[in-house]
Specification:
It is built from 13 helices and 10 strands. It has 349 residues and is of the alpha/beta class. Bound molecules: NADP nicotinamide-adenine-dinucleotide phosphate.
Length: 349
């Protein structure tokens, strides 16, 4: 497995990162450990989790994904060989069980509490990459793409957040830092504040990126991140499973999109997203590929994707998804993908 350096940080990670979002909801601890064993066998050293996982987040399960990763790190003694990334949840009035919902934010006290609790759940002393799960300020996220000034809310100034993270870095609790679900303005402001005030610099951005959601390119975040040396960690490369094609013949096929209420994932169920998934699935089959292979091989090969964060509920899925790393898509196939994108642009964004 190839490795890549994350931004200007000291971290070198596999170009596939293993996501953990299902662990504790759709996957047991034993499943999580088998996935980790298998991923390591295939050269993956990079694992992404979050304090609020598993998803969808519930009071009864919150923190379990980190715990399952922690018990594996302890059991195997492989901590030093792995790059562990986790995330602090931003403000969200409806997720009250993670440090108080709306009161939760990226100030010094909250970030310290979040880091220390994650360290305990992970049973480690240092988090390699610490990320802000979504912005403190008013920014449309998770499929809501309209910026509305009337939704402005009090937020923690970015320089204060960077300063708080800087203290945690000095104490050795965290290493590199990253942002997630961020915009062009957000990336530029984080970089500007770190340069102006001599504060730590972000190394990564973890944003949605897949065949049906190419906003990272169309909003020119690719240019911003290239110039500012911020590495993209692409999440949901299969659009929550929609791009595997399994829901096309049978919308009730077993999986995340049929198991949970559609209110969790409306962007992956929009008619235009389903229509795009059908076009990509047909294209894949015309080229002797599965829809999953097409979606992942394409994402793995994009020049601005440093690492793709994959997710799986079964070992069989995980194997198929890692195997897709060795597939090289011919230029004419990439051009046909771009033609579909031009006619159905970012339906799942
Ligand atoms: N920063 C953020 O806000 C954010 C948001 C989302 C995700 N993430 C990160 O990114 C990781 C990956 O995201 P994701 O899980 O949404 O990725 P995804 O690739 O879009 O979806 C993964 C899901 O698709 C299904 N699947 C995967 N491979 C398959 C296959 N070969 N055949 C059929 N179905 C398959 C599985 O669910 P079923 O078996 O249930 O169908 C699997 O859990 C997460 O674990 C998390 O670490 C971050």
């Amino acid at each position: 497995m190839d490795q890549v350096q994350l931004g200007g940080s000291h971290l070198h990670v596999s170009r596939i990162c293993l996501g953990t979002m299902t662990w504790g909801e759709q996957n047991t601890e034993a499943d999580a450990h088998s996935q980790l064993d298998y991923a390591v066998e295939r050269g993956i050293n990079f694992i992404d989790t979050a304090e609020m996982y598993p998803a969808p987040s519930r009071a009864e399960t919150q923190g379990t994904s980190e715990r399952h990763l922690g018990s594996w790190l302890k059991k195997t003694g492989r901590r030093d060989k792995m790059v562990i990334a986790t995330k602090a949840a931003g403000p969200n009035a409806s997720v009250t069980w993670v440090r108080g919902g709306r009161a939760r934010n990226f100030d010094a006290a909250n970030l310290r509490a979040a880091v220390e609790t994650s360290l305990r759940r992970l049973q480690i002393e240092h988090i390699d990459l610490y990320q802000l799960h979504w912005p403190s300020r008013n920014v449309p996220v998770f499929g809501n793409n309209v910026f509305l000034p009337k939704r402005e809310r009090a937020s923690v100034p970015i320089e204060d957040t960077l300063s708080a993270l800087g203290d945690l870095i000095k104490e050795g609790k965290i290493g590199a830092i990253g942002i997630s679900n961020e915009s062009n303005w957000g990336v530029s402001e984080f970089i500007k504040q770190s340069e102006l005030k001599g504060l730590p610099r972000i190394a990564t951005i973890q944003n949605l990126y897949n065949l049906s959601a190419r906003g990272f390119e169309t909003s020119l975040l690719d240019e911003t991140c290239y110039r500012d040396n911020v590495s993209l960690l692409a999440y949901s490369p299969l659009a929550f499973g929609q791009l595997t094609g399994k829901y096309l013949d049978n919308p009730k096929a077993h999986g995340r999109l049929s198991l949970f209420p559609p209110t969790w994932s409306p962007r992956y169920l929009r008619p235009a997203t389903v229509a795009a998934a059908a076009r990509y699935a047909q294209l894949a089959r015309e080229h002797g590929l599965t829809p999953t292979q097409l979606a992942l091989a394409w994402c793995y090969s994009r020049w601005f994707v440093a690492a793709t964060i994959i997710g799986a509920t079964s070992l069989e899925q995980l194997q198929h998804n890692i195997d897709a790393y060795s597939i090289r898509l011919p230029l004419d196939l990439i051009k046909q993908i771009d033609q579909i994108h031009a006619t159905i642009t970012n339906p799942g964004q």
